[in-house]
């Protein structure tokens, strides 16, 4: 039984948290559903207790609130009503606040009813966020003051000591202020985390040295290109570029110059590609180029041109001139090969280009 309840609650937590792209809304929906269920059970139990002690007016308000809260819980759990999520949340809140107003008006059991209003500030902020939460809390404070201080106790069916009234208003307002501060801090931290997440995600997909997409970033772009090509019935070509004898550059000139050469070739390649092409740093001295909407036949002259471009663009440092050449293998998309197979086949062609003398462009097959 325990395992079943845990499984069901995990399932719904997942469903509720995934229902909006903005996690803040999903979080509010999740909390509202959770409070709906808990609130409904508590008010139902208190309703039964009120019947037992002959407080029928209070029992009716508690049962009505319990029913509305349970209804809001069911509606919030159902995916069918995601569109009405806000309306349902406000229905639950109105039910809860009306019960609060009734408890202040009637005093509940032995004038202890107003004690329950201390749960409202945090519930309101959790349901509605900071801005709307502040407004609703202020409105409820105003209702509290109205009920307590209208001349001749017009809205009261019980008597509270004067000191109790003022302390109730003061302590409730303090709770609202503290909850508002907490909510603002929580919301700011959430926004900061969200910004950092976007920043880290972007940074994790960019190569620090060349500022090109790295392997991780490129994989994402490749998957998108593959999906797009399939749906639009187009083909693309993938080409793997590998610098020839790059180890010699490092050995002769050092790693720092090696890094500068990598930057230099990435700049030359970036300038040489078409606007729609996507170049990435695939590994150490290896670059992967995506040529969208281009078949193998069309790709060959473009790749040849780039090979020549690099060959001619010598890298100059003081008195040193370093000539760089690339071996390039490429593969055209087809129905029978997956994305990773395409990369593998382009790699196989690159290997052949290396084996057969380097500084050349070879197609798969
Ligand atoms: N400076 C620098 N060197 C790197 C970087 N990443 C990889 N390398 C170097 O690239 C070299 C690759 O060497 P190999 O795999 O033997 O290939 P190669 O010397 O280019 O020879 P072939 O590929 O067979 O033509 C190694 O010396 C690596 O240290 C980097 O980010 N910066």
From TrEMBL:
The keyword Transport does not apply. CDD domains: GGDEF (cd01949). SMART domains: GGDEF. InterPro entries: Diguanylate_Cyclase, GGDEF_dom, Nucleotide_cyclase, Rev_trsase/Diguanyl_cyclase. Keywords: Membrane, Transmembrane, Transmembrane helix. Residues 234-365 form the GGDEF domain. Signal peptide: none annotated. Its cofactor is Mg(2+). It is an enzyme of class 2 (transferase). PANTHER family: DIGUANYLATE CYCLASE DGCM-RELATED, REGULATORY COMPONENTS OF SENSORY TRANSDUCTION SYSTEM. This is diguanylate cyclase.
């Amino acid at each position: 039984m325990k395992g079943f309840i845990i499984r069901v609650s995990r399932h719904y937590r997942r469903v509720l948290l995934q229902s909006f792209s903005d996690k803040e809304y999903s979080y509010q929906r999740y909390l509202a559903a959770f409070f709906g269920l808990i609130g409904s059970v508590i008010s139902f139990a208190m309703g039964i207790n009120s019947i037992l002690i002959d407080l029928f007016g209070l029992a009716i308000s508690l049962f009505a609130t319990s029913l509305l809260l349970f209804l809001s819980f069911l509606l919030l759990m159902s995916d069918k009503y995601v569109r009405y999520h806000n309306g349902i949340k406000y229905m639950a809140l109105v039910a809860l606040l009306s019960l609060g107003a009734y408890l202040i008006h009637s005093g509940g059991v032995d004038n202890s009813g107003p004690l329950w209003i201390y749960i409202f500030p945090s519930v309101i902020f959790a349901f509605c966020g900071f801005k709307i939460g502040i407004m609703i809390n202020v409105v409820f404070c105003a209702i509290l003051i109205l009920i307590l201080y209208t001349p001749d106790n017009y809205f009261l069916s019980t008597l509270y000591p004067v000191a109790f009234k003022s302390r109730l208003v003061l302590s409730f307002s303090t709770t609202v202020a503290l909850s508002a501060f907490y909510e603002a801090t929580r919301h700011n931290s959430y926004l900061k985390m969200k910004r950092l997440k976007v920043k880290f995600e972007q940074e994790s997909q960019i190569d620090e040295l060349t500022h090109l997409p790295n392997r991780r970033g490129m994989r994402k772009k490749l998957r998108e290109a593959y999906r797009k090509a399939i749906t639009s019935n187009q083909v693309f070509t993938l080409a793997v570029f590998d610098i020839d004898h790059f180890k010699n550059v490092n050995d002769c000139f050092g790693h720092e110059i090696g890094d500068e050469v990598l930057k230099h070739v990435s700049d030359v390649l970036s300038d040489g590609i078409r606007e729609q092409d996507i170049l990435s740093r695939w590994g150490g001295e290896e670059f992967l180029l995506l040529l969208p909407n281009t078949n193998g036949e069309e790709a060959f002259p473009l790749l040849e041109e780039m090979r020549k471009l690099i060959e001619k663009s010598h890298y100059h440092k003081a008195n040193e001139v370093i000539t760089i050449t690339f071996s390039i293998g490429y593969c055209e998309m087809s129905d029978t090969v997956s994305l990773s197979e395409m990369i593998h086949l382009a790699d196989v062609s690159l290997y052949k280009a290396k084996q057969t003398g380097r500084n050349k462009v070879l197609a798969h097959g």
